[in-house]
Design a protein that fits this description.
The structure holds two protein chains of two kinds. In chain A, helix 3 runs antiparallel to helix 4. A five-stranded antiparallel sheet of chain A has the order 1-2-3-4-5. Chain A starts with a helix and ends in a 9-residue tail after the last strand. By secondary structure, chain A is α+β, with helices and mostly antiparallel strands. Chain A folds into two domains: about 50 residues; about 130 residues, VirB8 protein (Nuclear Transport Factor 2, Chain: A). The longest helix of chain A is centred in the N-terminal third of the chain and has 28 residues. In chain A, strand 4 and strand 5 form a beta hairpin. By secondary structure, chain B is α+β, with helices and mostly antiparallel strands. Chain B has two domains: about 90 residues, no CATH class; about 140 residues, Nuclear Transport Factor 2, Chain: A (Roll). Chain B is about 55% helix and about 20% strand. Chain B contains ten helices and five strands, in the order H-H-H-H-H-H-H-H-E-H-H-E-E-E-E. In chain B, a hairpin with a 2-residue loop joins strand 2 and strand 3. The longest helix of chain B has 30 residues. Classes of the chains: A alpha+beta, B alpha+beta. At the A-B interface, helix 1, helix 2, helix 3, strand 2 and strand 3 of A face helix 1, helix 6, strand 2, strand 3 and strand 4 of B.
Chain lengths: ~190, ~270
């Protein structure tokens, strides 16, 4: 008799549990939907963050600046004892018209430097991109440079240069295509 | 899984249990009663008329079989199935519920991971710097910085208060001291020559924008126009002595109250 009663009671408990269990699935369902919503939102957010045009643009900007700073430094570094290596570096840092100028004037220039026996080194103080056309692959940079020239006598002179550079991207590489100093006392350039 | 077989088994077991209830009631302790009939079911032949096994043999056999069911007897297997079946027929929802819970955890985990990825992507140094990527802000900073530099480094000996006013309006933090140091000798020179020093920013570029802080590289021309000539009574324009000097400086600016204030002036050690 006890067992029979226990069985009935157990059955009743099951029935009760079945009724009581309903809020739980509802809660879990709501949680699942909320989690699903978050997942969709976070996924979209991630996708957007990963495929942001501005990110690619920012990367190009930083690459252009890094290449520009390096190129400007290269073009202001020359050791009369190691001319060929220095001038090769000049050519590899540049492209377009600037490169043509360097190539055509190389012999004369080398002669001058050999005579003067100077060692020129440069340090980039600061640099920034003023314009960047991501698609066309063109950029303009300002680079503040400190150039140190060591004459044959050992005397050192320091000079600050306000460089304006133009970069062109060729084959995924930014190279200097024009370089000059910001004019002093003239009308604002550009 | 054939649930009908389990159902039949269970019904059979219940019938047997009911039949046994009377003799078991007074021979067995209540707590062991629960385990005994179940194990006895396994031992009981399929025929429902089988006599109940002797109560004296029950304790030892039931305990050993319940703790370690021998796999050799096929009956013990069906008993285990039966037990599982009772728990399975009851819910069927829990499997769905468990799956839903797992899904929730998975979705939540993915959400958290994707969010972390997005944050990490945004935290890349290249992207944190919004110079040029945020064009509006970049030109705003350029414009305000150029104006600030023009005002801060221009000096008219006839209106020395103007530069003080500019300093008060445009400078903050350590730039105040830097500016007064820089302007000190300009001022002295200008007062001596009764000159008007005009600074004009010719080129500027934003190096970095990080939230409400930015750094701008500025090229500026400084022209000094001596007005000492006017004392000679020469009518006409002030004599332009054409003293131009090119300067370059990096200016740190902070965004405050809708304006960009100069918070640092770097003249690169000059």
């Amino acid at each position: 008799m006890q067992h029979a009663r226990a069985g009935v009671r157990a059955h009743a408990v099951h029935v009760l549990a079945g009724h009581r269990a309903r809020p739980l699935p509802a809660l879990v369902l709501v949680l699942a939907l909320v989690a699903g919503g978050f997942a969709v939102w976070a996924g979209q957010d991630w996708y957007r963050a990963a495929h942001d045009d501005r990110a690619a643009y920012a990367v190009q900007r930083d690459e252009a600046l890094a290449a520009g700073e390096q190129a400007v430094q290269n073009l202001n570094t020359l050791d009369h004892q190691d001319l060929n290596r220095g001038l090769d570096l000049w050519e590899s840092s540049t492209t377009g018209e600037l490169r043509e100028q360097l190539v055509s004037g190389r012999a004369d220039f080398a002669e001058q430097v050999k005579k003067a026996k100077t060692v020129t080194s440069a340090r980039v103080l600061s640099g920034a991109v003023t314009e960047l056309d991501d698609r066309a692959g063109r950029a303009r940079v300002l680079i503040a440079l400190r150039v140190t020239v060591k004459a044959s006598g050992g005397a050192k002179t320091e000079k600050d240069s306000r460089m304006l550079g133009e970069l062109t991207r060729a084959g995924g590489q930014w190279r200097l295509s024009a370089l000059g100093q910001a004019p002093v006392g003239g009308a604002p350039a550009g | 899984m054939s649930t009908t077989r389990h159902h039949i088994n269970r019904q059979r077991r219940r019938r047997i249990r009911d039949r046994e209830a009377r003799p078991a009631a007074f021979t067995r302790a209540p707590e062991s009663a629960g385990s005994r009939p179940r194990t006895r079911d396994t031992a009981v032949p399929v025929s429902p008329d089988a006599p109940p096994p002797s109560a004296s043999s029950a304790p030892s056999s039931s305990r050993s079989s319940s703790s370690s069911p021998s796999p050799s007897t096929p009956q013990s297997g069906t008993a285990a199935d039966g037990e599982r079946a009772t728990t399975r027929t009851r819910p069927r929802r829990p499997t769905g519920l468990v799956a839903l819970c797992a899904l929730t955890v998975l979705l939540g985990g993915f959400a958290g991971w994707a969010h972390a990825q997005a944050e990490a992507a945004r935290d890349e140094p290249a992207r944190r710097n919004t110079a040029l990527t945020d064009l509006a802000r970049t030109s705003e900073i350029k414009g305000q910085t150029a104006k600030a530099v023009d005002r801060l480094f221009s000096y008219d000996h006839t209106d020395p208060a103007a530069s003080g006013k500019a300093a008060k309006e445009l400078l903050t933090g350590k730039a105040v001291g830097q500016h007064s140091d820089l302007l000190a000798d300009v001022r002295e020179r200008a007062d001596e020559q009764k000159a008007v020093i005009t600074t004009t920013v010719t080129e500027s570029a934003v190096e970095r924008i990080d939230g409400d802080r930015a750094r701008v590289l500025v090229y500026a021309d400084q022209s000094s126009v001596g007005t000492a000539g006017e004392a000679d009574g020469k009518e006409g324009a002030a004599r332009d002595e054409g003293v131009y000097a090119g300067a370059m400086l990096a200016v740190d600016v902070v965004h405050r109250d809708g304006r960009w204030l100069v918070s640092g002036i770097d003249t690169f050690g000059r």
